């Protein structure tokens, strides 16, 4: 449980950093044929996310579930929630055009690659720990 809480907290921090950077630079979501409008990024980020973060709703749910790991009654549900969120994020980062470009070395912003790679890695660990219910009794 403690490992899941630590990994989720670190991943959430990276998600919030990505959200802040995306809002500042106007990095909208860009997945296949769906592309966000920089003029609506503040509104769109709540449900659709940004090119550098999960949606605001997912980030809030992650924070609530991480805190739920401290509750005796909600621990199992919190772990499962974090496992699902981690799995979704593992798929979400690589489908974003800005992330793929950064991972291929084709982005002028050198901060995107380490930020999103670290966030994706932590999401993968979060998915596995949540799936296994590590430390839950």
Give an overview in words:
- By secondary structure, this protein is mostly helical.
- It has 6 helices and 2 strands, in the order αββααααα.
- The chain has helices spanning 2-25, 41-44, 56-68, 75-95, 97-103, 112-132, and strands spanning 30-31, 34-35.
- It has a two-stranded antiparallel ribbon.
- α1 (2-25) runs antiparallel to α3.
- It is globular.
- It starts with a helix and ends in a 5-residue tail after the last helix.
- The mean pLDDT is 94.
Q: Order of strands side by side in the largest beta sheet?
A: 1-2
Number of helices: 6
Form type: globular
Give the DSSP E fraction (strand runs of 2 or more residues): under 5%
Main sheet makeup: 2 strands, antiparallel
Mean pLDDT: 94
Overall radius of gyration? 15 Å
What is the N-to-C order of secondary-structure elements (H for helix, E for strand)?
A: HEEHHHHH
Which range best describes the helical content: under 10%, 10-25%, 25-40%, 40-55%, 55-70% or over 70%? 55-70%
Structural class: mainly alpha
Number of strands: 2
Could you list the spans in which at least 5 consecutive residues all have pLDDT below 50? none
The span between the termini is 9 Å
């Amino acid at each position: 449980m403690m490992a899941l809480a630590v990994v989720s907290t670190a991943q959430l921090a990276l998600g919030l950093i990505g959200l802040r950077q995306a809002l500042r630079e106007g990095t909208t979501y860009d997945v296949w044929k769906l592309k966000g409008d920089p003029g609506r990024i503040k509104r769109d980020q709540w449900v659709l996310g940004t090119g550098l973060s999960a949606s605001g709703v997912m980030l809030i749910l992650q924070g609530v579930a991480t805190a739920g790991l401290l509750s005796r009654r909600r621990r199992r549900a919190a772990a499962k929630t974090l496992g699902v969120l981690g799995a979704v994020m593992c798929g979400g980062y690589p489908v974003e055009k800005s992330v793929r470009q950064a991972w291929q070395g084709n982005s002028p912003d050198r901060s995107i690659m380490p930020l999103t790679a670290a966030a994706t890695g932590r999401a993968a660990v979060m998915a596995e720990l949540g799936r296994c219910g590590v430390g839950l009794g």
